[in-house]
Amino acid sequence: MGSIEKALQLKEQLDSLRPISKAQELKIMQKFRLDWNYHSNNLEGNSLTYGETKALILFGLTAQGKPLKDHIEIEGHNEAIEWILDIIKGEYPMTESFIRQIHSLLLKESYTVNAITAEGLPTTKRVEIGKYKSQPNHVLTSTGEIFRFATPEETPAMMGELIDWYRDKSSQNNVNPILLAAEFHYRFIRIHPFDDGNGRTARILMNFILMQFQFPPVIIKTEEKNKYFFALRQADSGLIEAFVNYIADNLVNSLEIMIRGAKGESIEEPDDLDKELAILEARLNRGNQEVEKTVELIYELYDKSVVPLILNFVEGCKKFDTFYIETKRFLRATDYASDNITTAIPIVKNKINFDITTFGFSASYKVFRHSEYGNFDFFTNIDVMLNSNTYIVRNERTNQTLEKNYQDQLTEDEINTIVNEELKRHKDFIEQKMKNA
């Protein structure tokens, strides 16, 4: 089976697992987003490691000794991805204006870079965000030859032709999204419409096309840099199938990760432990100092730790609904409680002030359906208690507590452990009732 056929088959398997729970989807997409940010920028020479990239995006930690420009690139790239993930939910057309918007988000601000003239002489040029190139951006190859892209004069017309080509191909009934996305990437690179940032823009546009067709994004890993550029050079020589197959190979990897995630299985890859250790080192280097509670820190804690914990717990608790006649779930915050979780999440955020002391989630299960094992109820809850310098995640029934400083958010593993322990307690409770009966 070829890579394209395998990817299409895996897509069918993924579709059969949909809808994916909100908590799992958030977890999967966070992994894709972090990998995408790191690898796409590293391919272009960004010096931040994976750990430094993740620490910057998730915790706002800057890497000592690394250029400010590299931090700005990561932040801009992440903003562009987040925008893509947001607009992909609706029907957003591919236009030249859209492409320029992505470029503006990516680069954030104009700057000067080194370049070569059409005659191969060194020069500098000003990179203007969201604007097509004003000077040639040919590159010097490893053999000493100059590889020529479209001239500044040719670029506007060729970009218009690219959009027309895309609209025609994407509207066909038998369109193959993998072929469409890969060829669009290649055609865009052959034009090289901007003075800088063309590779990152091309990969974002390729993934935008794939995600419009419900595929996960393709992550071109920095370890595959030589293979990636070799596939592009093969396309330059007329073998575009080689590049399409290379993209399909990497799409297969993304599909397999997303399928594992949809099944609730681990989405970690062999090198993920090394990445996590690098992140841990960055956080340890920051120090273990206590930070006094502020309203701003409570907002950040709520968005980055409490809400993900709630969503994960809600999805887990739903698994037990079928065993009981009546179930209710509540989101609590000091003097507020509601059984409409979706509505309550933004309401609680609006109620945040310095005096708030607790966030909590609870679920009550009334009347076990299988009465032959007894007539019993079950109650579960998790609280996040806010102290002056630390917050505590607590389950009073199991006496489990986790205390952290305000600058340290809950990790995915910590959230999963907290939730899974309480779900396991519920399962064990039912099994004990059955055993007693």
UniProtKB/TrEMBL annotation:
<feature type="domain" description="Fido">
    <location>
        <begin position="94"/>
        <end position="249"/>
    </location>
</feature>
<feature type="site" description="Important for autoinhibition of adenylyltransferase activity">
    <location>
        <position position="44"/>
    </location>
</feature>
<dbReference type="Pfam" id="PF02661">
    <property type="entry name" value="Fic"/>
</dbReference>
<feature type="binding site">
    <location>
        <begin position="196"/>
        <end position="203"/>
    </location>
    <ligand>
        <name>ATP</name>
    </ligand>
</feature>
<protein>
    <submittedName>
        <fullName>Fic family protein</fullName>
    </submittedName>
</protein>
<feature type="active site">
    <location>
        <position position="192"/>
    </location>
</feature>
<dbReference type="InterPro" id="IPR003812">
    <property type="entry name" value="Fido"/>
</dbReference>
<keyword id="KW-0067">ATP-binding</keyword>
<dbReference type="InterPro" id="IPR040198">
    <property type="entry name" value="Fido_containing"/>
</dbReference>
<keyword id="KW-0547">Nucleotide-binding</keyword>
<dbReference type="GO" id="GO:0005524">
    <property type="term" value="F:ATP binding"/>
</dbReference>
<dbReference type="InterPro" id="IPR036597">
    <property type="entry name" value="Fido-like_dom_sf"/>
</dbReference>
